[in-house]
Design goal:
Layout (H helix, E strand, L loop, with lengths): L3 H11 L13 H19 L7 E5 L14 E4 L4 E8 L5 E4 L2 E4 L6 E6 L8 H20 L2 H23 L11 H8 L3
Antiparallel strand pairs: 1-6, 2-5, 3-6, 4-5
Helix pairs in contact: 1-3, 2-3, 3-4
């Protein structure tokens, strides 16, 4: 499984830089690359409901009162939440503010969400996307050429599509339910 330093080294090597052996490298440019990594991880996890980063939790009620009369219940936001994905019972009427979630859904309320995930749990296709994205973000800092920035942005975009495709196949789609309309359409009367 990949590590943070391996992903950073993968980006550095692609940009023609030597690999590092520590994240506390005193070189200011290397520290800049490490900072860029930290900034892009959450954003990269939020762009897709990655199967490896999905987590399900029952929200815990907060003793705080809702912020307006529009909401009846207050919940604690999961500490590792990056992006909500699904909830049950279904509600699109909620508001996340700070560490709280306001809603009109009473407990228990289950959420599936994209969670902060350690690099050790990244599949190779996602780690490769992160290294390409890091190379695109760090290219100007390291090479000072727009050609390198454009090259790695393009590679990152292509790898994102490949990664999303591979991730989507980790769980098959729901089967089409058998019903008379489908049977007539495919096998006969229509």
């Amino acid at each position: 499984m990949p590590t943070k330093i391996q992903i950073i080294n993968n980006a550095l090597i692609r940009l023609g830089e030597p690999a590092i052996d520590s994240l506390t490298n005193p070189n200011n440019i290397i520290q800049g690359v490490v900072s860029i990594y930290d900034m892009i991880i959450e954003d990269s996890l939020a762009v897709h409901p990655w199967k490896f980063a999905l987590k399900t939790a029952t929200l815990t009620e907060s003793p705080e009162d809702p912020i307006t009369d529009n909401y009846s219940y207050t919940y604690n936001k999961p500490a590792d939440l990056i992006q909500p994905w699904r909830n049950h019972p279904l509600s699109l009427d909620y508001k996340i503010q700070g560490n709280l979630i306001y809603s009109n859904i009473n407990a228990p309320w289950k959420w599936m969400y994209v969670a902060h995930t350690e690099p050790a749990f990244f599949p190779e296709y996602f780690a490769l996307y992160i290294s390409f994205r890091l190379a695109s973000e760090a290219a100007m800092l390291l090479t000072q050429t727009m050609d390198q920035v454009s090259l790695w942005e393009s590679k990152a975009e292509k790898q994102l599509m490949k990664a999303q495709n591979r991730d989507a196949t980790m769980q098959p789609n729901d089967a089409i339910q058998n019903n008379d309309y489908w049977a007539d359409h495919f096998y006969g009367a229509i």
